[in-house]
Amino acid sequence: MADEGGCNALRRRFARSFMDLLILRMLRREALWGYRMMSLLRTRYGIRVGPPVIYPLLGSMEADGLVESEEVHEGRRRRRVYRATQRGLELVECFESVLSELLRDSI
């Protein structure tokens, strides 16, 4: 078995490569705003993602029809909250199916 450092490095590499799909998996459970997504990516996968990365990614995901957003007002605070669309949820199911298939099959 790989050492903990090796596993952490692999986890970060995977998370960076499939960040859009990880975000869709998070949005499957609940609607989230950008800062919350950045915090979850840091705590769950050990990667630090800032606004210059997350917001363009969310913008392209919205343009591709994977997420939709709305501005929500809570008191004096405004947040753009994102939700996965049906197309985004279908992509997550496909991702999980392919990943499961790849892990199940031996070379």
Strand content: 15-25%
Distance between the termini: 19 Å
* Backbone structural class: alpha+beta
Order of helices and strands: HHEHHEEH
Structure summary, number of beta strands: 3
Using the coordinates above, name the CATH class.
Mainly Alpha
The tally of domains stands at: 1
| Strand arrangement across the biggest beta sheet | 1-3-2
What is the helix fraction of residues, given as a range?
A: 55-70%
Main sheet summary: 3 strands, antiparallel
Query: What's the tally of helices?
Result: 5
Instruction: Give the CATH topology.
Output: Arc Repressor Mutant, subunit A
How is this structure best described in words?
The chain is α+β, with helices and mostly antiparallel strands. The protein has five helices and three strands. It has a three-stranded antiparallel β-sheet. The radius of gyration is 15 Å and the shape is globular. The model has no long low-confidence stretch (mean pLDDT 91).
Keywords:
about 110 residues, alpha+beta, Arc Repressor Mutant, subunit A, three-stranded antiparallel sheet, 5 helices, about 65% helix, globular
Draw up the topology in text.
Elements: H1 4-17, H2 19-29, E1 32-33, H3 34-45, H4 51-63, E2 67-74, E3 77-84, H5 86-104
Helix pairs in contact: 2-5, 3-4
Q: What would you say about this model in short?
A:
By secondary structure, the protein is an alpha+beta fold.
